[in-house]
Amino acid sequence: MSHRLKSYIARLRTELMSVFMMAEPEVWEQVRNASPEAQIDALFKSSAIRRFICEHALGQAGYEKDGIVQRLRNGVLYQLERLSIDWDQNGYPANVLLFGRPLSNTDDAAAFLGRISDFVSVPAGIPISGPEILDLVK
User: Fold this and answer.
1) Neighbours of 53 (CB within 10 A)
2) pLDDT (0 to 100) of residue 130
3) Cα–Cα distance, 113 to 20 (Å, whole number)
4) Is the Cα dihedral 33, 35, 41, 44 positive or negative?
5) Please, are residues 76 and 102 in contact by the beta-carbon 8 Å criterion?
């Protein structure tokens, strides 16, 4: 995963440096004029950048507001309202919880649906668990 993540960071270095400036301004100030390799290393070590990448990857995989997911156990479809992500101390997702409503009745109030590992994203067809999110980046 680290090689794939580093390649992803290298490709998006300029954009991620903008996120870095907002998330960790002190560190950004130290590396903003550094070599691209030093910037990539700093971005790779940043838990804020890992969180940003995870949230972006989840959205790209269909796990976002109004995204459609299917419960693996019974095939019921749900419309997502929001995600709740618990992060570990290194900025990796430890637990991802889904909140939403049955697609058959979108007038219902959003409620807790379950862990992300209990569902598959309908648009992408990707079942994932929290720690596997960073494996989605290419």
Assistant:
1) 23
2) 65
3) 33
4) positive
5) yes
